C-alpha cells in the first residue's frame, strides 16, 4: 500500500508540475492577435454604428455618446489615459473648428513601454461621421470609420493582455481616436499642431485606420486585399517591415494603387495620418476603398465583412507589435 501511495503521489506531482508549466508558458504575439475576434468586433460595431449615435457628427449629441462608448471600453479594460487618471478626452475648442462645429473631443488611451517609454507608436482612427441627412436618414458610418474605431479597441485590448502577462511592448502605444476628420482632419491637426500629448520628435510612426470592413468594386471576387497608402513615403524601412509582417502572419494582397503620387483621389492627403506625415513621422494608412454606401445612410453594420475586419485588425496589431518591440526605432529617410 505504501508503494502504491508513493506512486500515486508522484503521478499527482508530475501532473501538477506540467499543468503549472503549461499555465505559465510564455505567450507570443500570435496568442494575443487571436484575441481580436470577429464576434467581438461585430458586437461593438452594432452598438457604435447604431441609430442611437445619430451619425456621430462632430460636436453633436451622437458624437458625445460615441466618446463615452470608447472611454468605457478603456476603463473596463483598465487601459489608462496619458493625460490624467480618468481623463480620456483631449478637448478641442469650438474656436478651432472655424465655425464648422461645436467643441469636440479626441479620445486617448495609453500603454506605457517597458524599456523605451518615451518612444511612441500612434494607432489612430477617426471617431466622427457625417450625422443626419436633410431627409432624416442617419449616416451610421459602420465602415467609415466605425470599423477603424472598434479595430483600435480590440488592438488595445490585445496589447493590454500582453502587458498583464509581463509581455508588454518595449515602446509606448498611444491609441488615438480623433474627431472632426469628416470636416477637415481637425482632431488630428489639433493633436499634431496644437497639443501633442507626446513630443512629435518622440513619435516613431502612425498607423492610421480609416475604413477596413468592406470590399470595393475592384476587388469583388478577389477579396483578400487591403489598400496601403504612405508606407514608403518617409521610411523605406517601415514599408519593408509592413511587407514582412504581412507575409509572416496574414498574407493579404497589398494594393498600392492609391499610393501613387499621380492618383487623382489624393487619399494620402485626406485622412488623419497626413497630419503626422507632414511632421516627418512615418505613416501607414489602411483602407478598403470606397463603395456604393460611402457617406450614405446605407453604410450599416450588417454590410461589414467581420472575417475581413478580423484579419485586417490582426495585421495592424502585428505591425504595431513589431514597431514597438524591435531594437532600433525605424529610420526616416525622406522628408515631406
UniProtKB/TrEMBL annotation:
Chain ranges passing through the membrane: none
PROSITE patterns associated with the record: EF_HAND_1, PROKAR_LIPOPROTEIN
Superkingdom, taxonomy of origin: Bacteria
InterPro entries the record matches: EF_Hand_1_Ca_BS (IPR018247), M28_fam (IPR045175), Peptidase_M28 (IPR007484)
Domain Peptidase M28 positions: 106-318
Pfam family, one: Peptidase_M28
Protein name: M28 family metallopeptidase
Native source species: Jejuia spongiicola
Amino acid at each position: 500500500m505504501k508503494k502504491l501511495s508513493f506512486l500515486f503521489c508522484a503521478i499527482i506531482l508530475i501532473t501538477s508540475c506540467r499543468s503549472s508549466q503549461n499555465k505559465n508558458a510564455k505567450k507570443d504575439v500570435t496568442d494575443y492577435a487571436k484575441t481580436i475576434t470577429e464576434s467581438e468586433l461585430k458586437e461593438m460595431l452594432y452598438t457604435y454604428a447604431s441609430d442611437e449615435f445619430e451619425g456621430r457628427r462632430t460636436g453633436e449629441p451622437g458624437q458625445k455618446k460615441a466618446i463615452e462608448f470608447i472611454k468605457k471600453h478603456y476603463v473596463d479594460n483598465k487601459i489608462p489615459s496619458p493625460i490624467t487618471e480618468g481623463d480620456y478626452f483631449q478637448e478641442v475648442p469650438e474656436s478651432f473648428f472655424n465655425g464648422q462645429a461645436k467643441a469636440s473631443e479626441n479620445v486617448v488611451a495609453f500603454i506605457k513601454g517597458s524599456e523605451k517609454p518615451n518612444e511612441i507608436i500612434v494607432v489612430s482612427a477617426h471617431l466622427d461621421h457625417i450625422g443626419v441627412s436633410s431627409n432624416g436618414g442617419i449616416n451610421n458610418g459602420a465602415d467609415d470609420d466605425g470599423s477603424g474605431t472598434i479595430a483600435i479597441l480590440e488592438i488595445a485590448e490585445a496589447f493590454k493582455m500582453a502587458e498583464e502577462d509581463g509581455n508588454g511592448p518595449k515602446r509606448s502605444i498611444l491609441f488615438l481616436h480623433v474627431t472632426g476628420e469628416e470636416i477637415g482632419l481637425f482632431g488630428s491637426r489639433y493633436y499634431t499642431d496644437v497639443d501633442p500629448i507626446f513630443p512629435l520628435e518622440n513619435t516613431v510612426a502612425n498607423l492610421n485606420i480609416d475604413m477596413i470592413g468592406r470590399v470595393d468594386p475592384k476587388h469583388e471576387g478577389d477579396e483578400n486585399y487591403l489598400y496601403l497608402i504612405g508606407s514608403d513615403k518617409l521610411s523605406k524601412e517601415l514599408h519593408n517591415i509592413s511587407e514582412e509582417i504581412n507575409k509572416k502572419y496574414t498574407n493579404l494582397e497589398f494594393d498600392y494603387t492609391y499610393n501613387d503620387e499621380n492618383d487623382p483621389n489624393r487619399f494620402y492627403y485626406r485622412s488623419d495620418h497626413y497630419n503626422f506625415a507632414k511632421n516627418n513621422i512615418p505613416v501607414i494608412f489602411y483602407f478598403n476603398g470606397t463603395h456604393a454606401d460611402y457617406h450614405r445612410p446605407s453604410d450599416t453594420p450588417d454590410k461589414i465583412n467581420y472575417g475581413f475586419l478580423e484579419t485586417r485588425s490582426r495585421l495592424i496589431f502585428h505591425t504595431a507589435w513589431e514597431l514597438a518591440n524591435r531594437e532600433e526605432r525605424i529610420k526616416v529617410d525622406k522628408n515631406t
